[in-house]
Amino acid sequence: MQLDAKIPEGPIAEKWDKCRFSNKLVNPANKRKYEVIIVGTGLAGASAAATLGELGYNVKSFCIQDSPRRAHSIAAQGGINAAKNYQGDGDSIFRLFYDTVKGGDFRAREANVYRLAQVANNIIDQCVAQGVPFAREYGGTLANRSFGGAQVSRTFYARGQTGQQLLLGAYSAMMRQVSTGKVKMYTRREMMDLVVVDGVAKGIIVRNLVTGEIEKYSAHAVVLATGGYGNVYFLSTNAMASNVTAAWRSYKRGAGFANPCYVQIHPTCIPVHGEFQSKLTLMSESLRNDGRVWVPKAKGDKRHANDIPESERDYYLERKYPSFGNLVPRDVASRNAKQACDEGNGIGETGLGVYLDFADAIKRDGLDVVMRKYGNLFHMYQKITDSDPTKEPMQIYPAIHYTMGGLWVDYHLMTTVPGLYATGECNFSDHGANRLGASALMQGLADGYFVLPYTIGNYLATVPPVPTSTNDPAFEAAANEVKEQVNKLMKNTKSGKGGQTVDHYHKELGKIMWDYCGMARKKEGLEYALKRIPEIRAEFWENVVVPGSGQELNQSLERAGRVADFLEFGELLVRDALNREESCGGHFREESQTEENEAKRDDANFSYVAVWEYKGQGTAPELHKEPLTFEYVIPSQRSYK
Amino acid sequence: MSSKTINIIVKIWRQNGPLAKGAFEEHALKDISTDSSFLEMIDVLNEWLTIKGLEPIAFDHDCREGICGMCGAVVNGTAHGPDKETTLCQLHMRRFKNGDTIVIEPFRSQGFPIVKDLIVDRSALDRIIAAGGFVSVNTGSPQDGNTILIPQHVAEQAMDAAACIGCGACAAACPNGTPMLFLGAKVSQLALLPQGQLEAKKRAINMVLQMDKEGFGNCGNERECENVCPKGITIRNIARLNREFLKASFTIDH
Q1: A421-439, pLDDT tens digit by residue?
Q2: Would you call A371 an interface residue with chain B, using a CB distance cutoff of 8 Å?
Q3: Phi, psi for residue A355 in degrees, rounded to 5
Q4: Which of A468, B91, B120, B241 is the 20 to 30 Å CA partner of B151?
Q5: Is the ipTM above a cut-off of 0.85?
Q6: Share of chain B above pLDDT 70, in %
Q7: Nearest CB to B145 within list A124, A349, A453
Q8: B106's torsion region: left (phi>0), alpha (psi -120 to 50) or beta?
């Protein structure tokens, strides 16, 4: 596996210009001869489908849900960053770049992050032009708010529904292309495999989730915009259908998987309530603008929050990080919450929670102002917990939220399989070991609107503009493998065998992942997980019971296929965590911490992207390293004090 | 979050495909945690059915935080259940009492053929958006965002409309089976904003024509839609849609 990041030479501010200029172009008359498959219709997928359609390419767009508008980007609450400097508070492209590289704990590629910061401003303009109803000031200008890891106010937002509004913008742009016929939409289809012909991505195999049919699609290039793999932990803030299958199958077809151990654990989620819980709900980071995080000073204090006097509360983030206070980055906030609970100061029935308190904000700004900012979040919190955050503090706890790792891509967003691209959360490129709040929306839309449409032409210009087909035997072979897997998953159906359900194994895997490869990781635990996961996997394949049949709508079968892949992928995630004997960002190795329990990086030995290459079933994957060099932001111990 | 448990009976709609005959199936469920969401209650039922060797209930759901618009069913006669401004996934079992019987049916409307059990085909809503629910602006280099000034209250009103999650409850609740609240929301959002003005006439007409083509009915001012809308979208948006449509019918340049 050759890792050539293809980063243009020259000063960082000129690299993207240089790349765009040196890229080969496809002439407008030829664009209509090319077909591009895009899997996923979240921010990255929908924006790419819309833009490529506008450019004249023929796009085949696939989504797992009944409508492209349901993709999980829709759930992003807080906002989207851009260095507009509308507030005149000292922001600049370089500062956004700097904050993002630092926030990522110096494990992202400088060139990619700089480009992200450069195009971020275009995103805001584009979305405004589409009619995205961003929040406005009284004078009609765009409003901003602050987010963790930054000391400027650069986050644009649409109430607590920014992801929804940006996605609906991209979705409507894409539906406009559907109406012109440039984008053909395939809903309720799940990508089951990538088809590689002579080492080049030529198409995909999907399962039609309504009929159960295994379908083949060909194109000149394939783009994965299939999101993250947080559901490997079973409980996460991801949507129920979010999965790793498309990325994982592509990995098994030759795409390198980068930094799978970089998982973001979001500090402000609603704590777990019971064993039947199916998912965790995030409360936007924007709440930390006004909410104050605290725990009782006394261990095991069971008094009601409102009965604990000010002097007996520990506002630990404000105490430990006076300059950033409650707005420290997510990894720092999560780790501190865990520490407070580990030390016995946690709150709630389980002791696994901390308070997020709005009493001071309400006293200072009035209930009206606070409700205007956070009303829908408070409403959602009350629905779930039956408790009113304007009367008593919220209870929060960290949860799996976002995955920084993903398919390795070069500067053009191409994976190690020629013709296969990965965009948005599905790739690894921009967030290093920790993503800053309001950066995921920025990256998804940057990739789809402003990066891929420029870089994919450079590849397509080298591919003859002749019609594609699914006639190559590789299509049939891949489709047969998918059918075989379906049969294997269904082998216990109606056999009378008293096995377990898919969820049973998913929960078992999730528990191992969370306990041994969650917020804190150490060698022994990771080794134990590496031993346990193959055992669970073997048991799954032996005993899992999937009702119904493969030739119809069968949600148990859908989940079974996803869990089967999680059971393989989880092992790679743990292996990567074991290999990385340093702490960085969301990856905290207990063996590697400073005296103050902060993450201690080891730049001498680990300043690289870990890229894993599949070597076949039963063989250990091979580790490749892309060295990371920093010319503009010199790595230092991150400090938010 | 004080947890307790209840025993309930669910009468749930089973239908194996759009043309198959459907019927209610009854199940008794024990020890359902009142902290569970409604969908988690169905999860429990499905786990139990699976272990028994029976087929679980097919139902659409994804984000489970009330924003994707994928879930939805009629619970005891009301789309998305008894709570105001709440999607089915955000309805919690504490809303029910021990011994309750809960009747669960799919969203029903002429334009939403049943796929299986509680799953319906709402692709008509996508086609309605494709008919005009957008601003025709290509990705490129639009003017700076702040050159389009939008008064705060207008932005807020547009946002109120834009909050629609496309779940289709409006059509399911309507005696005429019309998703006009859905159309009204999109047409209003773009009619309120300067960006939407250029195509306002075409948009209103094309979206309504598509709605008719999909076999949906028309608004009869029953207001059932706003009663069940999980995002609190009011029928003022339908009034605005009607104004936009009328205005366009009289003045459109063909």
Answers
A1: 999 999 998 999 999 999 9
A2: no
A3: -90, 145
A4: B241
A5: yes
A6: 98
A7: A124
A8: beta
